[in-house]
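Handout, page 2. Input:
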Amino acid sequence: MKKTAFLFLCLLCGSAYAQVSVDATRTFLQEKGKPFFWLADTGWELFHRLSREEARHYLDIRQQQGFNVVMAVALGELDGIRKPNDYGDRPFKSLAPLKWDATPGNDPANAAEYDYWDHVDFVIREAAKRNMYIGLLPAWGDKVVPGAAGPVIFTNPGIAFAYAKKLAERYKDQKNIIWILGGDRPAVAGAADYRPVWRAMAKAIQEVMGRDIFIAYHPQQRTSAYFKEEDAWLSINAIQSGHAARDIRVWDLVSAGLKAVPKRPFMDLEPCYEDHPVFPWDGQWTRAGRGYFSDYDVRARIYRGVFSGGCGAVYGHHQVWQFTDTSRNKPLFIGDTLIGWKKAIQSPGAWQMQHLKKLLLAHPDFHREEDSLLIASDRGTNYRDRIIATRNQKKTYALIYLPQPHTIRVNLDRLQQGNKKISWFDPVTGASHLLPQQYDRGIQTFDPPAKEPKDWVLVIDISGFALKAAL
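Output:
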């Protein structure tokens, strides 16, 4: 009897950590049984480069913009082990991941007390106050995979396990953490297999938090095929469509990812970032040539990734993830716009992302799928013109993303019978333009209400099916 009660208590404790979980269809996410749309910002260097006051300011703005997840790294990419944080503190003594440079006390007014890990604690708690999750990466991938700043400190699974367990024990009572492994690195690179290290970290987190804890993997490549049935710890599959080109067929990547076995929700965990130079790594980038990814480029990538079946969206701004401040740090690339992170957090794309979340939450039936047959006109072939349509399985609503303001013909016979309210949704402002006429059946023609913005969403709702008042 005591053993049964103990096991039941363990199950309760384990489930308490799983604030975000996978739904019954294994396609979307939920929070406490309700649909959860992951809308994240990439604040990778948040713990490493910002002061307490700056972190509060950043989180305040991102909360106002509707983000519910901030992805940040305990051991950052930009020399996050050797270069101290804003308070002069480092995470470890002598680069040893099991020798934390921690001091008694945590008073921020006392430099002898307030250490690197106290600052991480503070930022995570501040996010919780704003009902935001921290997508916590125990380490950037260059601490595992050689070839970048590094240094590689997780040289074997044993060290990785011990470090991740210590980290998980520190945050075992912090309910606003989503665990993310990988950190922009492949799990397998040529003949080198780094999966044992990542699996060791996952095992350590599960030992502390319970087997149902949510764990993701942030890859470098456009495939997540390296983790299979034996990796039951992995909650979702993900790709990084990245910053190398505008012409990325993200809809194909998501569609292929959703067909992977075992079935998991799928997400693009790093699409193109606003104001990121397009492929700046070969020395041939110019402003007049490749230029930068704009807020339109970001929307066109993210909307089509989500409408193809993605379970969430991740936004990034190239000045924000690194928290560019030229008085303290050099910019990463010669092409960086150098507007500074405090101005960049107000960029257009950051304010626009909340409209996507509101649009989807206004349609609470998340059991949706891509349906290209809704589009009776030319669906397009590439990133400039490819139209993506999604609808719920009950066929009571449909959302169609148009990357250009062109006439579209829609086959309403693909949806349930009944009067259909049609509206145009502006992804820049979130405004909705309801058409005065109601439609029922057949192939109907619709024209966007204006040439600006370039992209629009056609929203089809069948009368009699209630929507949430989110728009």
